[in-house]
Design goal:
The complex is a heterodimer.
Chain A: H1 2-33, H2 82-85, E1 98-100, H3 109-119, E2 133-137, E3 159-163, E4 179-183, E5 196-198, E6 225-230, E7 236-239, E8 261-264, E9 270-274, H4 285-298, H5 301-319, H6 322-338, H7 345-349, H8 372-375, E10 383-389, H9 397-404, E11 409-416, E12 433-437, E13 456-461, H10 468-480, E14 486-487, E15 490-496, E16 501-505, E17 514-515, E18 519-523, H11 525-532, H12 536-544, H13 548-561, E19 566-567, H14 572-577, H15 595-606, E20 616-620
Parallel strand pairs in A: 1-2, 2-3, 3-4, 4-5, 6-9, 10-11, 10-13, 11-12, 14-19
Antiparallel strand pairs in A: 6-7, 7-8, 13-18, 14-18, 15-16, 15-17
Chain B: H1 2-10, H2 20-45, H3 49-59, E1 68-70, H4 87-90, E2 106-108, E3 113-115, H5 128-139, E4 152-154, H6 167-175, E5 187-190, E6 211-214, E7 228-229, H7 249-254, E8 257-261, H8 270-276, E9 280-284, E10 303-304, H9 313-318, H10 322-340, H11 343-358, H12 366-370, H13 373-378, E11 396-402, H14 406-416, E12 422-429, E13 449-453, E14 473-478, H15 486-498, E15 504-505, E16 508-514, E17 519-523, E18 532-533, E19 537-541, H16 543-550, H17 556-563, H18 567-579, E20 584-586, H19 607-624, E21 634-638
Parallel strand pairs in B: 1-3, 2-4, 5-6, 6-7, 8-9, 9-10, 11-12, 11-14, 12-13, 15-20, 20-21
Antiparallel strand pairs in B: 14-19, 15-19, 16-17, 16-18
Classes of the chains: A alpha/beta, B alpha/beta.
Chain lengths: 640, 658
């Protein structure tokens, strides 16, 4: 019995050893038996030549060619590039000045509005001789307004033919050296760096303003279709993440069936949309789309998030109105003329976009209030106070002392906008004080004075009253939000049902959408925007109705940032004693004739209502907390 | 293996009482097995000299010994380059397939020597640079030795310099390549195109549909989106260590701008030298397509001046602000380091560009191509960069993490359910030993209430991106936060809508640098500053749940779960690091758990707690390699908070002062 057991264990040991031997030996034998095939990659790659060191260089110094003078020539005479066909010498000085050929005969409403939008832009000039770009509108053929060859044609040199809608006029004359801006140009005729590709615009595209993007949230909603694609018949189909993707071999055999896709008439709610490009082979697109699906499913949420937001930004910045499309075209051409002082790529591709970030202000992104994050930079730690002294015009001595007391104040500028003579004596301050003799116009307040060197401006009215710690705290807040206005007193806008228009009030409410510029911090870039990008009509409006200027400035900043301004605490007693706004705290308490209409005129000029409301105020962390005032840094803010 | 050998050695001792015949039999058997094992073992560890020497034979050959191919005079010649070629017309992308790595496969034809009917060679076999280039491709991830799996073919026929070739015969050599097929999916590298007297700007060798990576393209010959413009490699660049020794380079080192003039050819090797010196190239060569211009933003590194404006160069350069010049110099140097300095860099950049076209959804971004490392490090690209105020109607999802404090949990649920914008309540039940209360026992609330049971009691469960979260806004709330009022919570949600990319929370905390200990310290005292909000009660975007769960750097996530602490600090680090922005503390509220508590909250006074939390900050700062938290001195209150204004007219009257 025992020996049987022993024998059993013996056999077990023996067979285990055999197994091991067979396993190990087998591997070795296998390796011996197979030819010593080199490992893929390592040894089958490009050989290491024994004589690699002896190989000759591809270019021997002696065979370098001699210089020749003739530049490379275009293979066909008709082709153009920027250097060959555009004469930039005409654009010296003012940059891009555009002359638009007037329409011959009766014109359509669209045509008229497009003309108006160019004439309203900062590029426009009425003199063809002073223009560096001559613009020829080529619109719809139906109204019979096809243009004949214009007078100053000059073989099309420095001309831009703008074709906003397809199926425009037949070519009645040779385009020659003219640039063409049109929708969906073909690869064969499009000259990169010379022509401009436009989006396809429907007839009903709004002239200015335009509908904002429809994206209401950053990330896709759960359960929304992954992909929507246009069908030949005009409807839409959607495909979900569940749809099985065809293998990537170019040919999908079977139709995925109705279970996985749905047909719809209108553009469905989907994360991605497949654009077929209106080609005859569009019928087969659907199957290929399923291959796209596989790629889309692989895409990381971070990338989907980024793409979604970028589509909205591009739409808002460049596509949503005819005016934006035209101004973008001109901006593109201006960038070619500017060369080194053109918009850097970052300005084109991140909010607020190149139409609102003027390269004439700076070509360094960190000079703007918008790009500090991307640049890893931060706004300067000091500000310039700009005090506007309007009639009756007492030198604001107390205010100057309070502002100069701030450790962040770099300089004080007094804008004397007053009939009275300049006072000869000004208070002694720790920071430089400069007096500028203004032109008695409200818009002077927002001129980009070269003396303002700091990023931040504290805009003040001589009658404003602020304490040093109010200034200090507000400036700290501004540094966290350099693209916004940070103010003490607020206005709020509302839709007035009774009058069917916008209205605004200075009454204290639970929400606000504007801050008064008579005491507010903002970036000096907004002075450039105010002076150089606003249509002149709007600045005139502000000059004629001074209370309107607050609204205008808030419109500009809101249109650029798409965010509400920020309110910081303000000693309330003084608020009632010394109203900040010239002519009263608001239009309601002391109505002035043009004021109520101001906001509606601006909304019309902007094409939409850019103002947004906020329901919060930023206070110091321990503001009015039941704790010893000794602990509080901004204790004077709480004094009754 | 060792163990079995020992066992076998002891083997014979186990069989002492057997018959001798059997004994001998067994001993012999064991010995054979033993010997076999030893032999096998030795073979395993013996240096495999046979194979190695074989490898050596395969690799180390002489260039002179490559096979010779005779090209008959009448062998076919490809069509001339097709100027209308684009990726969708002349390139078969289906060869590349859909692959998870999104990488094209590149095959290199074996090197051969081509001779004509008379035995005269067609060209130099291979130049040093082309050999280096093919070696770089072969060593890269793109390479495949399987011609059937390849989607891009690189001939080993060296056409870098047109002057060293016989054009017709070279074309014939191309045409007889095994997969030539009119040149589709074939890539040729040429740096010196054309020849006297008129110097064409692209390689004159007929090449049909082949892609050309050429140095010196003009707008007339460059097929945008198809060809790749590459630099003309400067052999001087090889002497990386001694830049000042290169002829003509001493001037470049001192100059700010260096003029690169068109010669007979547009592409100039001097461009590379100029970039290396960090000198801003002033390119005066009309119609020249700058190297890698498909992806490189040359406006950032160069000044292009039309030839007819050559006389204005001085005034053009003078108008460039100093800061822009410095950025251009940095950019020039970066371009050289990344894309010009070696043949390898040129080869890999070319393949990357082609790869980006074939897998556009996985393409390298503009920033990755163009931003120098110093900018990449310093910059933040906020994942929620679009200024957008989400509509109020969306509401928020409250997520309550709980273990077993059912009574307190129910109270929190009841309080939170009063908030108008609450759209769903999610209870994360983190206790595996106990079942959640029965359905009938839960408070009846007006919004859906879901209970998620977790597999493990981990803190990170609270930040998991559950499918049940349908809103963008998430309110994370502990099961003992009973003091927050409905007004406070609703106001917090409104504030989040204005700052959807930030953590918007109630308990504020601060990190400080401890100068004595030389490390970070956690602070929960009454301070004038805030740098964190605790996720015991905070609103944030649900995308951060995804980031926390899948993209948290280093071992932080596991570390937090192991220590059962600091998940909130980790979230603050994560959000601040990815957005570059500070938190928003809302309302003055300091007490959250019980009205009687004297301190800010009971826990904070515990000394060990403070030490642990400080440890967390130091640990996270070292993993992130930086301190991302931003300190601010403000908090968000309702516009009319503590204003002299009728309470009943205020939107959020019930804001506690403690």
């Amino acid at each position: 019995m025992q020996s049987w057991r022993r024998r059993k264990s013996l056999w077990l040991a023996l067979s285990a050893s055999w197994l091991l031997l067979v396993l190990l030996g087998g591997f070795s034998l296998l390796r011996l038996a197979l030819p010593p095939r080199p490992q893929p990659g390592a040894s089958q790659g490009w050989p290491r030549w024994l004589d690699a060191e002896l190989l000759q260089s591809f270019s021997q110094p002696r065979e370098l060619p001699e210089d020749t003078a003739s530049p490379p020539q275009a293979p066909h005479g008709g082709s153009c590039n920027w250097e060959a066909c555009f004469d930039t010498s005409k654009c010296r000085g003012d940059g891009l000045k555009v002359f638009v050929y007037p329409a011959v005969g009766p014109i359509s409403e669209t045509h008229r509005r497009i003309l108006a939008s160019i004439e309203g832009s900062r590029f426009h000039t009425f003199s063809p001789a002073g223009a560096c770009l001559l613009l020829l509108l080529s619109l719809d053929a139906q109204t019979g307004e096809c243009s004949s060859m214009p007078l100053q044609w000059n073989r099309g040199r420095n001309h831009l033919v703008l074709r906003l809608y397809p199926a425009a006029c037949p070519r009645t004359f040779q385009l020659g050296q003219a640039m063409v801006a049109e929708a969906s140009p073909t690869v064969d005729s499009f000259r990169p760096g010379f022509d401009v590709a436009l989006p396809f615009l429907p007839e009903a595209h709004p002239l200015r303003g335009g509908a904002p993007g429809q994206l209401r949230q950053h990330s896709p909603q759960p359960g929304v279709a992954l992909l929507a694609l246009e069908e030949e018949r005009g409807g839409w189909r959607t495909a979900d993440t569940g749809s099985s993707a065809c293998p990537w071999d170019g040919r999908c055999e079977q139709d995925p069936g109705p279970g996985q896709t749905q047909h719809q008439e209108t553009l469905p709610n989907a994360t991605f949309c497949l654009i077929s490009g209106h080609r005859p082979e569009a019928a087969s697109r659907f199957l290929q789309a399923l291959q796209v699906l596989a790629a889309l499913q692989e895409m990381s949420p971070a990338r989907v998030l980024a793409l979604r937001q970028q589509t909205q930004f591009l739409w808002d910045a460049y596509f949503s109105s005819v005016e934006k499309v035209i101004h973008t075209t001109l901006e593109v051409i201006q960038d070619r003329i500017f060369g080194t002082s053109a918009h850097p790529s970052l300005l084109w591709n991140s909010p607020p976009g190149a139409l609102l970030a003027l390269s004439t202000f700076s070509t360094s992104p960190q000079d703007f209030p918008f790009y500090h994050l991307q640049q890893g930079s931060r706004p300067e730690g000091r500000f310039s106070a700009l005090i506007w002294v309007a009639p009756p015009g007492q030198p604001p001595l107390k205010l100057i002392q309070a502002v100069a007391g701030s450790q962040h104040c770099a300089q004080i500028l007094v804008l004397w906008s007053n009939e009275r003579p300049l006072p000869s004596r000004w208070p002694e301050t720790a920071v430089p004080l400069t007096v500028i003799d203004g032109h008695r116009k409200v818009s002077d307040r927002f001129y980009p004075y070269s003396t303002i060197r700091t990023d931040a401006i504290l805009s003040l009215d001589a009658r404003s009253s602020l304490s040093t710690s109010e200034v200090d705290f507000a400036f700290l807040v501004w540094q966290s939000f350099p693209e916004r206005m940070v103010g003490f007193l607020t206005l709020s806008h509302f839709w007035d049902e009774a009058h069917g228009g916008w209205g605004y009030t200075a009454e204290r409410t639970n929400e606000f959408s504007m801050v008064l510029t008579t005491a507010a911090f903002y970036h000096r870039y907004y002075h450039t925007l105010f002076t150089h990008s606003l249509p002149k009509a709007l600045r005139t409006l502000a000059d004629e109705a001074p209370t309107c200027v607050d609204v205008l400035m808030n419109f500009i900043v809101a249109a650029v940032t798409k965010l509400p301004p920020i309110k910081v605490p303000y000693g309330k007693q003084r608020q009632e004693a010394a109203p900040l706004a010239p002519g009263g705290p608001g239009p309601r308490s002391k109505p002035q004739a043009p004021a109520p209409d101001c906001i509606n005129q601006l909304a019309a000029a902007f094409g939409h209502m850019p103002l947004l409301s906020s329901c919060l105020r930023l206070d110091p962390v321990l503001f009015k907390d039941p704790v010893s005032v000794q602990r509080k840094k901004y204790r004077s803010l709480e004094k009754p | 293996m060792c163990a079995s050998v020992k066992y076998n050695i002891r083997g014979p001792a186990l069989i002492p009482r057997m018959k001798t015949k059997h004994r001998i039999y067994y001993i012999t058997l064991f010995s054979i097995v033993l010997l076999g094992l030893i032999a096998t073992g030795m073979f395993q560890f013996w240096p495999h000299s046979i194979e190695s020497s074989n490898d050596w034979n395969v690799e180390k050959r002489s260039v002179r010994d490559v096979p010779v191919v005779r090209l008959p005079a009448d062998s076919p010649i490809p069509e001339r380059g097709d100027l209308s070629c684009r990726m969708h017309t002349c390139f078969d992308v289906y060869r590349c397939g859909f692959n998870p790595k999104n990488k094209i496969k590149v095959y290199i034809y074996a090197l051969k020597k081509y001779v004509d009917d008379f035995g005269v060679s067609v060209s130099n076999t291979i130049s040093r640079e082309y050999n280096e280039l093919l070696m770089a491709i072969s060593d890269s991830d793109y390479y495949t030795d399987d011609i059937n799996r390849a989607c891009l073919f690189v001939p080993s026929i060296d056409v870098l310099n047109q002057n060293t070739l016989r054009i017709k015969e070279t074309a014939q050599a191309l045409a007889q390549l095994s997969r030539w097929d009119r040149g589709s999916n074939h890539l040729l590298f040429n740096m010196l195109p054309g020849g006297p007297p008129d110097y064409n700007t692209a390689l004159d060798v007929p090449r049909d549909r082949a892609l050309l990576a050429g140095g010196g393209f003009s707008t007339w010959t460059y097929r945008q989106g198809y060809d790749v413009s590459i630099p003309v490699y400067s052999p001087l660049s090889a002497e990386v260590d001694l830049p000042e020794k290169g002829p003509g380079r001493s001037f470049a080192l001192e100059a700010t701008f260096c003029v690169v003039l068109r010669g007979a050819r547009l592409g100039q090797a001097v461009l590379s030298d100029v970039l290396q010196a960090g000198c801003v190239p002033v390119v005066i060569a009309d119609s020249y397509i700058l190297p890698f211009s498909e992806v490189l933003d040359w406006k950032r590194a160069s000044v292009v001046v039309p030839e007819e404006k050559m006389s204005d160069v001085y005034s053009i350069l003078q108008s460039i602000p100093q800061r822009q010049i410095e950025e251009m110099q940095r950019q020039a140097r970066w371009f050289w380091e990344a894309y010009f300095q070696s043949i390898k860099a040129i080869a890999l950049a070319t393949l990357q560009i082609i790869n980006d076209r074939i897998y556009p959804y996985a393409a390298i971004s503009y920033e990755e191509w163009n931003d120098p490392p110093v900018v990449k490090w310093g910059s933040v690209s906020n994942p929620l960069f679009l200024p957008l105020i989400p509509p109020q109607s969306q509401g928020f999802t409250a997520i309550v993490l709980t273990y077993d404090r059912v009574e307190s949990l129910f109270r929190v649920i009841t309080e939170v359910s009063k908030v108008p914008s609450l759209s769903k309540l999610l209870v994360v039940w983190n206790n595996q030993n106990k079942n959640p209360p029965e359905d009938s026992l839960w408070p009846k609330i007006r919004v859906p209430l879901k209970v998620v049971r977790t597999a493990e009691n981990k803190l990170s469960n609270r930040f998991f991106p559950y499918d049940e979260i349908e809103t963008e806004a998430v309110l994370a709330i502990d099961d003992d936060i009973i003091m927050l009022t409905s007004d406070e919570l609703q106001f917090g949600y409104e504030v989040w809508r204005e700052f959807p990319d930030r953590l918007v929370g109630y308990p504020g905390r601060l990190h400080l640098w401890d100068h004595e200990m030389n490390k970070w310290k956690y602070e929960s005292e009454w301070t004038n500053e805030v740098s964190m909000v605790l996720t015991g009660a905070a609103f944030y975007h649900k995308y951060f749940n995804y980031l926390y769960t899948y993209k948290m750097p280093g071992d932080i996530k596991n570390w937090v779960d192991a220590h059962m602490n600091c998940e909130d600090i980790a979230m603050n680090f994560l959000v601040a690091n990815v957005t570059g922005k500070a938190v928003i503390k809302v309302t003055p509220r300091k007490k959250f758990k019980c009205p009687e508590c004297t301190a800010i909250d009971g826990l904070s006074l515990d000394q060990t707690h403070m030490v642990e939390r400080s440890e967390c900050i130091n640990k996270f700062a070292s993993v992130f390699g930086t301190m991302p938290l931003k300190v601010v001195e403000h908090r968000a209150d309702p516009v009319l908070y503590k204003d002299d204004f009728p309470e009943k007219l205020k939107s959020f009257p019930n804001i506690g002062s403690l």
